[in-house]
Design goal:
By secondary structure, the chain is α/β, with parallel strands linked by helices. The chain is built from 16 helices and 10 strands. It folds into 2 domains: 235 residues, Periplasmic binding protein-like II (D-Maltodextrin-Binding Protein, domain 2, 3-Layer(aba) Sandwich); 93 residues, Periplasmic binding protein-like II (D-Maltodextrin-Binding Protein, domain 2). The protein starts with 7 loop residues before the first helix and ends in a 31-residue tail after the last helix.
């Protein structure tokens, strides 16, 4: 569920000049469609559904694209594959990585954001006095990954006064959380809460960080600067078709896409996929806020600035960073597909 670690070393190893030299010429399939490879940042699941949908229902083909979805996973560094030209587009995590790419002079660019809210959440046991997000400050056992400690927990400290001594290591195993009713655990709102309810038999308290001010975009479509410059038409078609794929996945017949997800990741089951879709809708992960009028994939300068300012305050990124280099508003937010949302 988390993006493969992108280290400072790997970022610094790729300079703008060397990356530009790797830019591939436009590739055409036998049908005359532009071929491209899009990498996800984890194993296939409902949270990637719109991309599989656009392949399965022919939306990409209608837009003149022959798209191969390349599944991510624990041993796959999709971001590095993007930077070395083995992927044309990549499904990023949140905006921290693109901000840091600017800092390290890595020429990657965000062209759309499929999720209006990052699904990152904190999970607590019911009936333990954790009746609000701020009540979590009472816990002395908040289980966080190293990535979580370096990112959203820095924001939690700066904004709400959480403390380092509350943190315990999280190894993506729910057993320690289940064993300690006073503990708190990180998770994705579309995954871990559902798994806990199904396996442990209780409904946990869930606090979506996005609903408490962690307003990063998430599940972005990223590419290289040379692709934006040289293949603007292909990029526009990919962004538009992906948005339509997501509308069809959330609100239409998604059976073929789900079958493709299960073929790619046999650990996915119908109930897990259905639960993920339901929770994406319940929490407005994909289709809420600016996407209501601007379409799925929409981004705004106001949101970008808001999140950047919070990361500066939290000490995650430097204040003098030219964060606007990390994204472009040229492709998304044009209302593509909004007519596919059910009325009412």
């Amino acid at each position: 569920m988390t993006e493969a670690k992108w280290t400072r070393r790997s970022a610094l190893a790729m300079g703008a000049g060397s990356l530009a030299a790797l830019a591939a010429p436009a590739r055409l399939s036998a049908q005359g469609r532009d071929k491209l490879r899009f990498g996800t940042n984890w194993l296939a699941q409902a949270e990637h559904g719109g991309f599989y949908q656009a392949v399965a229902d022919g939306t990409y083909a209608k837009y003149g694209l022959d798209v191969e979805v390349v599944q991510g996973g624990p041993q796959t560094n999709g971001r590095l594959m993007l930077l070395t030209g083995r992927l044309d587009y990549y499904m990023g995590g949140n905006m921290i990585q693109p901000f840091l790419a600017v800092k390290e002079n890595v020429p990657s660019v965000v062209v759309a954001s499929i999720f209006q809210k990052e699904p990152q959440c904190l999970i607590a046991h019911p009936g333990q006095g954790y009746d609000s997000f701020l009540d979590l400050k009472k816990s002395n056992n908040i289980m966080l990954s190293k990535e979580g400690q370096a990112s959203f927990f820095q924001w939690m400290k700066a904004e709400f006064g959480f403390r380092d001594e509350q943190v315990r290591p999280y190894t993506f195993n729910a057993a320690p959380f289940l064993a300690d009713k006073r503990s708190v655990m990180q998770g994705y709102v579309t995954s871990e809460p559902y798994a806990i309810e199904k396996e442990a038999g209780f409904k946990p308290a869930v606090y979506l960080l996005a609903d408490h001010g962690f307003d990063t975009y998430s599940t972005m479509i990223e590419t290289r600067a040379d692709v934006v410059a040289q293949k603007a038409d292909v990029t526009q078609r990919f962004v538009d078709a992906s948005a339509i794929g997501w509308y069809n996945y959330l609100y239409g017949d998604n059976a073929a896409a789900n079958a493709a997800i299960k073929r790619a990741n046999p650990d996915m089951t119908d109930d897990k996929i259905a639960g993920g879709i339901a929770l994406m809708k319940q929490y407005g992960i994909v289709d809420s806020g600016d996407s209501i009028t601007m379409g799925i994939g929409a981004m705004t300068e106001a949101r970008m600035k808001s999140f950047f300012d919070k990361m500066v305050k939290a000490g995650v990124v430097p204040a003098d960073l030219d964060y606007r280099k990390s994204y472009t508003l040229a492709f998304a937010g044009k209302g593509v597909g909004v007519n596919l949302r059910p009325k009412g």
